[in-house]
Design a protein that fits this description.
The chain has a single domain, classed as Alpha-Beta Barrel (TIM Barrel), CATH 3.20.20.60. Helix 5 (93-107) crosses helix 6 (121-129) and helix 8 (160-173) packs parallel to helix 9. The protein is an alpha/beta fold. The chain is built from eleven helices and eight strands. The relative contact order is 0.12. The radius of gyration is 21 Å and the shape is globular. Helix 5 links the parallel strand 3 and strand 4. The chain has helices spanning 7-11, 27-33, 46-49, 61-74, 93-107, 121-129, 145-148, 160-173, 185-194, 215-218, 236-252; strands at residues 19-23, 39-42, 79-83, 111-115, 134-139, 177-181, 199-202, 210-213. The mean pLDDT is 97. It binds 3-methyl-2-oxobutanoic acid and sodium ion (NA). Sodium ion binds next to loops. 3-methyl-2-oxobutanoic acid binds next to loops. InterPro entries: Pantoate_hydroxy_MeTrfase, Pyrv/PenolPyrv_kinase-like_dom, Pyrv_kinase-like_dom_sf. The active site is at residue 181. Pathway: Cofactor biosynthesis; (R)-pantothenate biosynthesis; (R)-pantoate from 3-methyl-2-oxobutanoate: step 1/2. Pfam families: Pantoate_transf. Keywords: Cytoplasm, Magnesium, Metal-binding, Methyltransferase, Pantothenate biosynthesis, Transferase.
């Protein structure tokens, strides 16, 4: 059995076979994807996907630690990255280090991910110098939804230069990879060519060095809304509702439990 890749191994995949990644929040989901993904992200999307929050802003360190621990128990060969939640790193490099160290120590994550480009470069450098590998996340950064003014495509037209500058800044600061979310495909390709670290696309381009999706989106389990960049590879939500409908009917008609699901009065012979 191959041991889990380290952040430097992911970095070395720049320009090669695309890096495969998904989010996970629970042990069984992590087990399902362990053999197939290079890294698994415990995303703060957990707040919306599993906890019914309206955005990622209400996600806490405690939630990230609990879900990180659950995911870690399901992984043996994929690398695990944990998202730093809103409010846990923006204040200062020292605050970011304290919380990143806590996330890594309590979950066993190999790296953390945080949102931001040029304005987070100092923090990224501070963390990397102190043993915390950092994945950056630029473009649409959902923790800034209230200042971005909605979940719009980022970096169109004249705004593209700022995004290229963000990508270069996180590369130079020492991030080992960068997520590009919801940016024009041509810009994602330009950034991928311009920087030395792998780009991980979500709503970006097939030309990125890797791809990521929210697992509940691609399985059709999260159906409150479907961004254009999501491809549904399954319909587990619909399958699940059909199963629950069948169960409810069988209970109400006393067809469940059947004889094979109940116990006799006599203990079986040993
Ligand atoms: O929280 C998340 O799921 C993410 C990915 C979509 C990149 O940050
Ligand atoms: Na996230």
């Amino acid at each position: 059995q191959k041991s889990a890749p380290l952040p430097d191994d992911i970095r070395a995949m720049k320009g090669g076979t695309p890096i495969v990644s998904l989010t996970a929040y629970t042990t069984p989901m992590a087990q399902m994807m362990d053999e197939h993904c290079d890294f698994v992200l415990v995303g703060d999307s957990v707040g919306m996907v599993l906890h019914g929050l309206p955005s990622t802003l209400g996600v806490t360190m405690e939630m990230m630690i609990l879900h990180g621990q659950a995911v870690a128990r399901g992984l043996s060969r994929a690398m695990m990255v944990v998202d730093m939640p809103f409010g846990s790193y923006e204040e200062s490099p020292a605050q970011a280090f304290r919380n990143a160290a806590k996330l890594m120590a309590e979950t066993g994550a190999a790296a953390v991910k945080l949102e931001g480009g040029r304005h987070m470069a100092e923090t990224i450098g501070f963390l990397v110098a102190r043993g915390v590998p950092v994945m950056a996340h630029i473009g649409l950064t959902p923790q800034s939804i209230n200042t971005l003014g909605g979940y719009k495509v980022q970096g169109r037209g004249a705004a593209s230069e700022a995004l290229v500058a963000d990508a270069r800044a996180v590369d130079q600061a020492g991030a080992f990879s960068v997520v590009l979310e919801k940016v024009p495909a041509t810009l994602a390709d330009e950034i991928t060519a311009a920087i030395s670290i792998p780009t991980i696309g979500i709503g970006a381009s097939a030309g990125c060095d890797g791809q990521i999706l929210v697992v509940d989106d691609m399985l059709g389990l999260f159906t409150a809304f479907k961004p254009k960049f999501v491809k549904r590879y399954g319909n587990l939500g619909a399958d699940g509702e059909a199963a629950i409908t069948a169960y409810a009917e069988e209970v109400r008609s006393r067809r469940f439990p059947a004889p094979e699901h109940v116990f006799s009065d006599k203990a079986p012979k040993a």
